[in-house]
């Protein structure tokens, strides 16, 4: 059985690996649920006769629903890939990562996508196959995982990350409670709330950015002056690179593209400027910021 599974995996594209569990009805006893999954599988097989296998996988990723409960083991086989994935397969992976939602940090979909991407990246690293086309997805993966890690550090629950949630730092009596004082004292310096942060009503996603000056710039700007969702996507989509501990600003790097489009967010972020120049220097690149001596 193990050998047949490996052979089947070798015939499957990377894009299909990301959607395979949607059609797996093994272990599901509910008749209606099994039939629904089987019908969905039959419909996909019908479409695959009219499209190429890779195209079908990419479309399935972009339109996938919340997955049914799945096994805890990764669907990606730990084998040496025979060749680099095609551009369409990389696009499918990118679309899957874009669907990861930090507003639902405990979702099974989030966990599965991040787990499978990490397994995929490790396979190619293990095979010593450099994939420059995978780097944008890797950067997006690192940034998303960093925000999810900072949710844990701040002790924010899934309910507190909902669409209409308000930062716990804005809750009445938060700073008077002994438990809250103890929490703030234990936080890494980059995540400790500023006075302006506590005084400005906001969604807790901003609390996840470990650069106090950046958070203050957002509050000073005012939420009527920019699109929050657009800013979040700009940060995620090659705006910020995270190289080490997600709560430490010295492990964060801002990209030139983000600087050109969102310069007001970065005013006075000297620690971020220093870390950006440091990480660029490690790659042999010129400094992005001119810093006072």
From TrEMBL:
Annotated region (Disordered), positions in chain: 34-53
The organism's place on the tree of life at top rank: Eukaryota
InterPro entries xrefs: DUF3425
Bias (Basic residues): 34-50
Protein name: BZIP domain-containing protein
Lineage of the organism: Eukaryota, Fungi, Dikarya, Ascomycota, Pezizomycotina
């Amino acid at each position: 059985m193990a050998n047949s599974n490996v052979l089947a995996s070798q015939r499957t594209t990377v894009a299909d690996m990301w959607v395979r569990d949607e059609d797996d009805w093994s272990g599901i006893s509910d008749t209606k649920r099994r039939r629904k999954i089987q019908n969905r599988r039959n419909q996909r097989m019908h479409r695959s006769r009219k499209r190429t296998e890779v195209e079908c996988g990419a479309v399935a990723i972009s339109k996938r629903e919340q997955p049914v409960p799945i096994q805890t083991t990764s669907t990606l086989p730990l084998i040496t890939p025979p060749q680099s994935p095609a551009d369409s397969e990389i696009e499918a992976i990118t679309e899957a990562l874009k669907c990861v939602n930090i507003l639902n940090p405990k979702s099974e979909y989030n966990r599965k996508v991040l787990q499978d991407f990490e397994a995929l990246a490790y396979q190619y690293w293990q095979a010593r196959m450099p994939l420059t086309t995978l780097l944008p997805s890797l950067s997006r993966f690192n940034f998303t995982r960093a925000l999810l890690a900072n949710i844990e550090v701040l002790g924010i629950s899934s309910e507190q990350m909902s669409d209409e949630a308000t930062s716990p730092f804005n809750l009445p009596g938060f700073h008077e409670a002994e438990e809250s004082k103890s929490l703030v004292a234990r936080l890494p310096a980059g995540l400790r709330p500023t006075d302006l942060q506590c005084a400005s009503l906001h969604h807790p996603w901003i609390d996840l950015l470990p650069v106090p000056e950046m958070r203050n710039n957002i509050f000073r700007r005012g939420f009527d002056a920019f699109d929050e969702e657009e800013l979040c996507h700009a940060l995620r989509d090659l705006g910020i690179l995270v190289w080490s501990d997600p709560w430490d600003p010295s492990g964060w790097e801002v990209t030139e593209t983000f600087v050109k489009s969102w310069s007001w967010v970065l005013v006075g972020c000297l620690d971020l400027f220093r870390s950006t120049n440091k990480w660029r220097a490690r790659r042999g690149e010129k400094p992005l910021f001119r810093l006072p001596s």
